[in-house]
Amino acid sequence: MLAILIAGAVSLLGTLLGTRLAITILVAKGYGQEIRDDGPTSHHTKRGTPTMGGLVIIFAVVLGYAAAHLSGQSPPTASGLLLLFLFVGLGVIGFLDDWIKIVRQRSLGLRSKAKMIGQIAVGLAFALLAIGYEDDAGNTVITHAISLTRDFSWELPTVLLVVWVLLLVAGTSNGVNLTDGLDGLATGASAMVFGAFVLINLWQSNQNCEVVPEVAKCYEVRDPLDLAVVASALAGACVGFLWWNTSPAKIFMGDTGSLSLGGAMAGFAMTTRTELLLVILGGLFVVITASVILQVGYFKATGGKRIFRMAPLQHHFELLGWAEVTIVVRFWLISVLCVAVGLGVFYWEWVTGL
């Protein structure tokens, strides 16, 4: 338990203090955000705001995880390290995207094909390592089964499992990326989801089959306590970064932050056997992603007509005249409800056994 608190506290202080330093350095170098010309006109005032703040989140999370284990509470585990690999690996893809935007002075970075190739490469490496690395009891970091709150009885062939992993990684990382359009929106919602995973991992640790094998509803999750340490570090880093990222934002996380945070959510869903539950926990990200899919599909099917004034969904409300802070707070409330419902479903399954 102490390791979880240390990880959260260190990562929170890391972003709270480190982001201030990053803002100073990025402003001095002129590494500012480019703004889409076809976006809401109110966003043009944000041009030049420092970006790539996700680098601070990544460093803070790794520092928090290392500090928790250097405190002597417990050694690192394969689950924790692989989840960090997925988190950092996607952050590197996001960094390349942000860097190209800055160097070429445009709002578009990596081509979509190049970004997808990078996501596939990182996701594939994670999948192969996670299903191939067994502990002494023969348990792997992720399994061949799809899950809601625990694995279903049927399993996927290895090829389909890898495809499933890639879909989860691409879907969640792009979902957080699409949500990161207003000051503090994605950061605050991400902190809530990672906070939920702290609770889920703690519960799975207390009810783990290695701890209480006589309990019929025990969880066969590998290294749940160490996963709670990673979740705490991520939640703490998001909260600390939010101090500087909330409206009016002094810095943006960029694709460096959004892709890495989304990838971490996918990693937690797979390692905690809550893949389908993530649809509820991250309901806000799902709705915003769905708004883009619906907009594009309807636009192509009808020859140019639109469902929303602009997608993603948060920009639709901006064009309706809602204040940015109003949208962010109301969307945060939606995220709180999604997390509460998700945790309720998780606990309900344990109580009822259904």
Task: Count up the domains.
Answer: 1
The number of helical segments is 12
Q: Give the overall pLDDT as a whole number.
A: 91
Biggest sheet descriptor: 2 strands, antiparallel
Q: What is the helix content?
A: 55-70%
Unreliable parts: none
The coarse overall form would be: globular
How far from one another are the termini? 29 Å
Proportion of residues in extended strands: under 5%
Which strand order spans the largest sheet, edge to edge or round the barrel?
A: 1-2
**Broad structural category:** mainly alpha
Please tell me how large the radius of gyration is: 20 Å
Question: From N to C, what is the helix and strand string?
Answer: HHHHEEHHHHHHHH
Describe the overall structure.
The protein is mostly helical. It has one domain (2-282). Helix content is 67%, strand content 2%. The chain contains 12 helices and 2 strands, in the order ααααββαααααααα. The chain has helices at residues 2-29, 54-70, 78-104, 112-132, 158-179, 185-206, 224-245, 254-271, 278-281, 283-301, 313-319, 324-352, and strands spanning 145-147, 151-155. It has a two-stranded antiparallel ribbon with strand order 1-2.
Characteristic terms for this protein:
12 helices; 354 residues; globular; two-stranded antiparallel ribbon
List the helices and strands and how they pair.
Elements: H1 2-29, H2 54-70, H3 78-104, H4 112-132, E1 145-147, E2 151-155, H5 158-179, H6 185-206, H7 224-245, H8 254-271, H9 278-281, H10 283-301, H11 313-319, H12 324-352
Antiparallel strand pairs: 1-2
Helix pairs in contact: 1-2, 1-7, 2-3, 2-7, 2-8, 3-4, 3-7, 3-8, 4-5, 5-8, 5-10, 6-7, 6-8, 6-12
